[in-house]
Hints:
Helix content is 23%, strand content 37%. The protein has helices at 4-22, 93-126, 134-166; strands spanning 33-38, 42-44, 47-56, 59-63, 68-73, 80-81, 86-90, 169-171, 176-181, 188-189, 194-200, 204-211, 223-228, 235-243, 253-260, 272-278, 282-288, 293-295, 298-304, 310-314, 316-321, 324-329, 336-340, 352-353.
Amino acid sequence: MAGPGLKIMVGLSLLALLTACGDKKPVEKDRPRVFVQEVKPKDYAASVTLTGDVQARVQTELSFRVGGKIIQRRVDVGDRVSAKQVLAKLDPKDLQTNVDSAQAQVVAEQARVTQTAAAFVRQQKLLPKGYTSQSEYDSAQAALRSSQSALTAAQAQLANARDQLRYTALIADAPGVITARQAEVGQVVQATVPIFSLARDGERDAVFNVYESLLAEAPEDKTIVVSLLDNPAIKTTGTVREITPAVSAQTGTVQVKVTLDGLPEGMQLGSVVSATAKTPGKFAVELPWSALTKNLSDPAVWLVDGEGKAQLHTITVGRYLTGKVIISAGLQGGEKVVIAGGQLLHPGVKVEIAENTYKDLAVEPQP
Length: 367
């Protein structure tokens, strides 16, 4: 058995060993190594490529002014027509009958006027001699005036019947190109129902359907370049002349019309064209995709504060591009954003900033 002295010596040795261990500093864990980018906001102007088609400035829906059965169609879609050219005809039988009836009514009223005029002349001659009374004279005069009024009415009815007959021919009111046909021979149509669509000769527009969000602010430069979609080398310039104030219920877009400064060879009515429009510049920051993370469901980035600690910061993404994002709100400038190495970070952890081999990706002004 060990004596009391041996136990004391062992106790002192353990005490010395524990004291020596307590003097050592705890080993600090390795800090996460990250790459950062300093925020440098500049004006950002997004560009949007739109697709539309070439249309006539004035497009007219042509229709008959009377109803009837179509018996003749003389033009088709794509045909060029001249002013006063007959495009289609209705069956004129019923309206011709109306003309004949009105003509007969006019002849009858003319005979009546002749008869009452002769009777009135007789009364005019007899009254001064006392061979007739004043009342008979007045009656003859009234009969003449009544027959004359009836003749005028019959003549007006005849003129209207002739107009109705003339309306059985659908006539182009201006030169242009037929762009649509809505009826065929044999079809019975009502008055004012569109039969043809006519693109009148003259100025041409490029028409685009644009989402309303892209037009939150009016473009500063209304002059844009419009090119043929199939052959971008064929291009012309145009000026925005009209933006519809209402959003289409079917497409959710607004219509933008661009007046073209002439049509080059190869670009014609109906051609599909494209145009690139730039929105007004906004104060924004451009960061690589790798900088994005999430704060619950909101987009966020990791920032490195003055003490070298990582902090999660919520931001607003204005636009997603290839390999990068545009931050529209949440960063003011001068912050250090982690663009690589943020996978294992948590709020308040101290990080080691590695030498940044990434080139600063601040937004450059658009040309």
